Amino acid sequence: MARQKVPPTQALTLTIDDQTVTAKPGQTVMDVASEHGIDIPHLCYLDGLSIWGACRLCVVEVEGQRRLFSACSTEVAEGMVVSTDSPRLRHYRKVIVEMLFAERNHICAVCVSNGHCELQAMAQRLGVDHIHIPYLNPQLSVDSSHDRFRLDHHRCIVCTRCVRVCAEVEGASTKGMAGRGIMARIINDLNEPWGDSQTCTSCGKCVHVCPTGALVEKGTAAAEMQKRRQFLPYLTVMRDNNHD
Amino acid sequence: MPQTVTIEPVTRIEGHARITIDLDDAGDVADAHFHVTQFRGFEKFCEGRPFTEMPALTARTCGICPVSHLMASSKACDELMAVQIPPTADMLRRVMNLAQLMQSHALSFFHLSSPDMLLGWDSDPLRRHILGVAAVKPDIARDGIRLRQIGQTIIDLLGGKRVHPAWMVGGGVNAPLTTDRRDEIAALAPEALEITKRNLAWFKRSLKDYTDEASCFANFPSLFLGLVDRNGALEHYDGVLRVVDADGHVLEDQIDPRRYTDILGEAVEDFSYMKFPYYKAKGYPEGMYRVGPLARLNLCDHAGTPVADQELAEFRSIQRGAVLSSFHYHYARLIEVIFAAERIAELVAKPEILDEHVRAKARPNRAEGVGVAEAPRGTLIHHYHIDKNGQIQQCNLIIATGHNNLAMNAGVKQVAQRFVSGKQLEEGALNRVEAVIRCFDPCLSCATHALGQMPMRIELRDATGSVVDEAVRD
């Protein structure tokens, strides 16, 4: 996605949070907001991966429209007036994060990702200090069968970043999804122990794009798992360029 | 008419408990029980977790002694990894363990127990607390608070956090000590020593005022269990298990902590959530033993630091054989703080304390690991079984306070028989019944980590021992 010069006739003008901005056709609200220093909350979106639009944290209001739009998957349009922050949006985002916490067993204090977790950071940013939804406390499994990595379903928010990076960047397609709704689980190959996977290249990209402590390096103790995902946009660009 | 006196809640201890006292027809104490009424479940919900998370997970058993759990758990993880941790990591863990001992003993002695001693067992309960002490003996209250602060500060300097530092891990510690922090610790240790010396001085002078309490606060023959080093010196971090009897004779020595099940059994009673460990060779309940500061001073050959050794010699002169009154847990606590301050100073004075090699890394190499350390309240045992991928299959925790369960129950009965009479139930008498528990400084949050069905039961018994009424709470 090398930056290209845009002829003036193809530039769109829109308003995001009272800021007049210009954008290229085909850009998403998330991209344009990000270029102008507006950080819209998100968890499933990750620069360098395809758009999924599942977490709904990036919902924004568009003037003249009653429904909300996910900023990551909505393309900009001429004259669009977007609001990324309002009491209604803040409320929805808080409820979404509360539901993520209630759905699985996110015990920050003892988690390997404590202090380096996107879900935890998001809860702090949105001011989630209580969970008003009853916890489901599900009994889930932990897959430690891989030589180097671990999949802990207790801490998964089903953002599918791991599924996408495995297919789109590594090209292995080891990670997939099984089940629906709150029964949805990340699986390896045809729901086999990760250690038995014939396709996994052990590259570790899934671990580093995972926003929580669901995918981690083995041997890490509490608060020791720091993810390094800065590589991803560069890796994607380099691969695209090579294909060109 | 037989009746039951209930003290609930028991105050100035860590956790929740209740004491019941059974009276006979004549109104004299027939029996007494110490009920631990809280429930946790750690051994069960640790199952399935990766072993590398166990130090942080089990440390959450307690906010007072998380460092002790970190210590025992990290040692069990060392065993699972089958590594020899770097010598500097060993030294750093020792410093943190001693700082934990210091802060916890300061809390027990000054904050929780000194109000009884300084204000009187019969004083107004509304003023019988650390602030009450501050009003009449501000220097002592200030010393206690400062001593605890020093212990907590050293933990913070090492682990980056006072409560639940994530610094201790299987294989060692996750960050070396910096020169600045070493210097700060080195400056704090002598201050802690001076504070403790001057408070031990007044405590020893006042002992004559507490002879009545000392005579009946769980003052009976029992066994004592704890760690000593290979040479028999006072030890809190590593070493071998030793058991001595009331006469001070060594019954077991040089027991590898991995073999703790050879000498210890665990019994369950229906009146408490806390288990009743006992010494197997003597059976249950005759195998009653005590752990903690009193036990450690009774069973070591020597302390190993100059001032602590002098004080230990004086302590031993209280009676021939082992010192039996649990009142002297308080005395032993102060001597241990002196030892901690001296030993911390020795350890941080060594140049290798700053070595940056502080962690051994390895995968799980053993299926079973036992970690034993001396917590402030006594011997703490963590025992894990893992599968081939390093996930916990089985977890057993034997907590310091649990070891003392039989002795605490016997102590409650003894002190109730001395001070409680059905004809006149005085506040001061009931406070003494609580105070005997405080001697042991029980940590009930830790001790009730287990999962199990133990309904609470209150029995009303007549003089013949048959139950005339009972209340059961499931």
* Global outline of chain B: globular
Quickly give the CATH architecture of the largest domain in chain A. 2-Layer Sandwich
Largest sheet of chain A: 5 strands, mixed
The CATH topology of the largest domain in chain A comes to Alpha-Beta Plaits
Radius of gyration of chain A, Cα only, in angstroms?
Answer: 19 Å
What is the CATH topology assignment of the domain at 84-219 and 328-361 in chain B?
A: Cytochrome-c3 Hydrogenase, chain B
Strand content of chain A: 5-15%
> How confident is the prediction overall: mean pLDDT of chain B?
89
Give the end-to-end Cα distance of chain B, rounded to a whole number of Å: 28 Å
Mean pLDDT of chain A: 94
Number of distinct helices of chain A: 6
Major sheet attributes of chain B: 4 strands, mixed
Name the shape of chain A in a single word: globular
Task: Classify the secondary structure makeup of chain B into a structural class.
Answer: alpha+beta
Helix content bin of chain B:
40-55%
Question: What topology does this entry show?
Answer:
The complex is a heterodimer of chains A (244) and B (474).
Chain A: E1 12-16, E2 19-23, H1 29-35, E3 59-62, E4 69-70, E5 81-83, H2 87-103, H3 118-126, E6 142-143, E7 149-152, H4 161-170, E8 175-178, E9 185-188, H5 205-209, E10 215-217, H6 231-243
Parallel strand pairs in A: 1-5
Antiparallel strand pairs in A: 1-2, 3-4, 3-5, 6-7, 7-10, 8-9
Helix pairs in contact in A: 2-3
Chain B: E1 4-7, E2 17-23, E3 29-36, H1 42-45, H2 54-59, H3 66-81, H4 87-119, H5 130-136, H6 138-159, E4 168-169, E5 172-173, H7 179-206, H8 211-216, E6 223-228, E7 240-244, E8 250-255, H9 260-263, E9 264-267, E10 276-279, E11 289-290, H10 293-299, H11 306-316, H12 329-348, E12 368-375, E13 378-386, E14 392-398, H13 400-403, H14 405-419, H15 427-440, H16 444-447, E15 456-461, E16 467-473
Parallel strand pairs in B: 6-11
Antiparallel strand pairs in B: 1-2, 2-3, 4-5, 6-7, 7-8, 9-10, 12-13, 13-14, 15-16
